[in-house]
Amino acid sequence: MGRRDEALFILKRVRGTANERAAIFEMREIETIVELEKESEDHITYFDMLLGTGNENLHIARRVQLVVWLQILQSWTGIAGVTMYAPSK
Q1: How far apart are CA 70 and CA 16, in angstroms?
Q2: Of all residues in the chain, what percent are helix, strand and coil, respectively (each to 5)?
Q3: Does the pLDDT value for residue 40 go beyond 80?
Q4: Do residue 77 and residue 59 come from a single domain?
Q5: At what angle do helices 20-40 and 4-15 cross, to 10 degrees?
Q6: What gap in Å lies between CA 77 and CA 46, rounded to an integer?
């Protein structure tokens, strides 16, 4: 939100000094996605996010399902998995 210079600095650090063009290109892609999301945010419901109806260009259903599965995998492999499934004495 308004911290474009800081975001570009971080992208340049992540991409390395040799890939400054790649960082600028990625920054433009991020800005384009943000604008696209702002245009369509009024008519996207939770149902649309889960099933992918509505605006298919944003791949919202894919993002939501990825996050859900990552949370499930984290719960199985993290400390919860150890405390729940570890053998007891």
Answers
A1: 28
A2: 80, 0, 20
A3: no
A4: yes
A5: 130
A6: 28
More confident residue, 36 or 3: 3
Query: What's the DSSP call for residue 45?
Result: -
Judge contact between 58 and 79, C-beta under 8 A. Answer: no
The boundaries of the domain holding residue 26 are 1-41
Q: Which residue has the tokens 């990552």?
A: 70
- Phi/psi for 52 (5° steps) reads 85, 15
Query: 88 with 50, same domain?
Result: yes
- Same domain membership, residue 85 and residue 48: yes
Cβ pair 53, 47 in contact under 8 A: yes
pTM higher than 0.70 = no
Q: What are the phi and psi torsion angles at 36 (to 5°)?
A: -65, -40
